[in-house]
Amino acid sequence: MTVDTETTDRTRTPHSAERPDEGRSGVDNAGKSYAAPIRAFDTLDVPEPGTAVAVKEIVAEDDYLSGHYPHLTIYPGVFTIETVQQAARAALAAGGIDAMLTDVTSVRFTGTLVPGDTMTTTLTIGTPDDDGSLVVKARCHRQDGRNCARITLRLRTREAQLR
């Protein structure tokens, strides 16, 4: 299964339940302001349960890149983590599992991403254990084959969170 975020209804992104006006900055019902969430991957391929491949084009015109080091624009590491988290949640959702991030277990950045780069993220997604938590391991690399990050996250199914 391939998910293309250009054609996907943005109201179905993982954040839609949390923010009623998805896709726009604004103020929520409690009076707290928020920014529109980033789209952290462009395409997602889920060849089989437990694996996924996400691709993100690093584009200079993306709002979040301006000012992230004025003389050397780089893709922020926190957005690399967000790519893994969004891709894992979307892959799980394709299999009928709704999960939320609970822990960033480990992160190692090993290379930079700059405008014009393409980041490919390969995810290995574990199955939920008895308490509903699962581990996601990801390797991110640039189009030249160089690694740029290794990330391990822990997610927990929403069903388990409601118990």
Provide a short characterization of the protein structure.
This protein is mainly beta. It contains 2 helices and 9 strands; from the N terminus they run E-E-E-E-E-H-E-E-E-E-H. Strand 2 (26-27) and strand 3 (33-34) form a beta hairpin.
Task: Describe this structure as you would to a colleague.
There is one protein chain. With 163 residues, the protein is mainly beta. It has one domain (40-161): Hotdog Thioesterase (Thiol Ester Dehydrase, Chain A). Helix content is 13%, strand content 36%. It is built from two helices and nine strands. The model is unreliable at 4-23 (pLDDT under 50).
Our estimate of the beta-strand percent is 35-45%
Radius of gyration: 16 Å
Can you tell me the CATH class?
Answer: Alpha Beta
Categorize the overall geometry: globular
SSE order in H/E notation? EEEEEHEEEEH
- In the CATH scheme, what's the topology name? Thiol Ester Dehydrase, Chain A
